[in-house]
Design a protein that fits this description.
135 residues
């Protein structure tokens, strides 16, 4: 019967977020919409959009929700590996939606600010370098 169940592993850049055995099905969000994964599905790789990853285990029968940031999902035989920048679990679906909005959007604003600052530093460096070259 174990060949009809999957093993789900969710990785973040510096830690293993979760490892779940006996998974019956997984639903993930891609740019094309929801993507269902079952144990007998062919092996695949897909890019994930920020959203809610849902899975169901054989022993609980309940859907479990994890908010994930963008990343990648790889299914190979009975193993499903999800690698994302950030993940949040342990909350009701409505709470997760609010957490995704606040934490992931806050991260995007911070990243934009950092990128803007880096762009200004780089352009200043290029101008100074060009000035030295002309002297």
């Amino acid at each position: 019967m174990t060949d009809h169940l999957m093993h789900l592993k969710i990785l973040m850049p510096f830690q293993i977020f979760a490892e779940i055995s006996q998974v019956k099905r997984i639903i993930a969000e891609t740019s094309e919409g929801s993507f269902g994964i079952y144990p007998r599905r062919l092996d695949c790789v897909t890019a994930l959009e920020p959203g809610i990853l849902t899975y169901e285990t054989a022993d609980s029968g309940n859907e479990i929700y994890i908010a994930v940031d963008e990343g990648i999902l790889v299914k190979q035989k009975q193993s499903v590996l999800v690698s994302v920048r950030n993940a949040i679990g342990g909350a009701e679906l409505g709470e997760l939606h609010d957490k995704v909005r606040s934490e992931f959007l806050e991260l995007d604003d911070h990243e934009r600010s950092v990128r803007s600052t880096l762009a200004r530093l780089e352009s200043g460096f290029v101008r100074r370098f060009a000035g030295l070259k002309n002297e």
